[in-house]
Amino acid sequence: MGRECERRTRRRQAGAAYHSGMGTKHFDTRLIHAGLPSPPLGGAVVTPVFQSAICHFEGEEDYHDIRYIRLNNTPNHLELHAKLAALEGAEAALVTASGMAAITTALLTVVRPGDHILFGSTLYGGTHDFVVTDMAELGIEYDFVDPDDPESWEAARRTNTRAFYLESLTNPLLEVPDLEAAVAFCQKHGLLSLVDNTFPSPFNFRPAELGFDLSLHSATKYLNGHSDLVAGAVIGSTELIERVRRKLGHLGGTLDPHACFLLCRGMKTLAVRMRHQNHGALALARFLAGHKAVARVNHPGLTEHPQHERAMRLFDGTSGMLSFELFGGVEAADRMIQALELPIHAPSLGGVESLVTRPALTSHSGMSPEARAASGIADGLVRVSVGLEDSNDLIGDFEAALET
Ligand SMILES: *Cc1c(COP(=O)(O)O)cnc(C)c1O
How many angstroms separate the Cα of 253 from the Cα of each of 98, 231, 342? Predict the structure, then answer.
């Protein structure tokens, strides 16, 4: 059986096809309609949860095509795969048990012991720890490079370099790497390009359109949007996703069908949420930038942001995230966080409720104070994930808290 034929068979499982195309339809429309099984299963408008670990054997010839939950092929998985591919204009996608499962499985698919890989120097803490402990243990070589300095990439490249990994909007300083140069660098040297696209979400940025090979997500954040599940996604070409899918089948970081169902439900409102959150974060960033107690605000929508022009060119919105420092440092930051009524003091991001955290105590507490300082993350830095509250209420809350 030819590969194309094999693929068609897989997409037609459970007697339905899952269309990822949607041709020229806009993002909002794809969110709702892409990936729906055709014909609908049992006539259902919303695909029900397929909580069956096994299905009747139908002569599948390849182990990875056997219909078994761990192999990521229930109707709930297939609908999400087609929807996610359509959202980023890519050929294929795969959901995983967490963002870390997406990241680790993708990395272990593209590099082997003896290979070398380049990483942007500002990474999600979990990714950073995986690289310096687990990948190092496996004998995979790596270097961290300045994501905004293409000349340093050239200098760090070796004959065994296979891939380059970046975050499209960095945490917690909201820097926008030179993403166009990264794609050109990878294409010139035959490297695979991987990008963690969690912060912008597919609404604001679609890496495949720029030429990235793999886009990774913590679907726990904006894609689901309700802070009530953990999930991940890998998006890219049919050939690469098939390799990642086989690796995931072995490593076992599979998303449960019930979580698939919830993620699919959450994702349908991504566009309305992101539009509100993009505006809310920009309004709050502008308010804070004009406040006398505030020393510095990081948000790519502000004209004074060092990569503002690049963000406007590459992104459709600048995300619901921002961070800032007060002149009063750690003490003033803690006093303000205590006084805030609306944002919840908690890590993570991308939910409907606004969240506030000090990265030095949470997401970046694993780094040494020196390493944090070198990356520009002050101990008093406050990170905000703007939720769906009324923007005026949120600004009013910050205004009152800064009075204290
Ligand atoms: C949260 C996060 C992750 C990890 O995702 P989990 O779903 O928690 O495993 C990876 N990258 C970024 C940018 C994140 O914010």
Answer: 8, 10, 35
Is the CB–ligand 1 distance for residue 104 below 6 Å? Answer: no
**Pocket lining: 230 vs ligand 1, CB cutoff 6 Å:** yes
Residues 126-170: tens digit of each pLDDT: 999 999 999 999 999 999 999 999 999 999 999 999 999 999 999
What is the torsional sign of CA 185, 219, 31, 14? Answer: positive
Question: How many angstroms does the Cα of residue 20 sit away from the middle of ligand 1?
Answer: 25
Residue 402's Cα: distance from chain center in Å?
Answer: 31
**Separation of alpha carbons 375 and 373, rounded Å:** 5
Q: Catalytic positions, please?
A: 70, 124, 196, 221
Distance 17 CA to ligand 1 centre (A): 31
| List of residues 6+ apart from 73 with CB closer than 8 A | 10, 13, 65, 67
Residue 74 CB–ligand 1 contact under 6 Å: no
Tens of pLDDT, residues 223-246? 999 999 999 999 999 999 999 999
CA 106 remoteness from chain centre: 13
Count the Cβ atoms, other than its own, within 10 Å of residue 26: 9
For residue 210, CA distances in Å to 184, 201, 214, 247, 315 come to 10, 15, 11, 26, 11
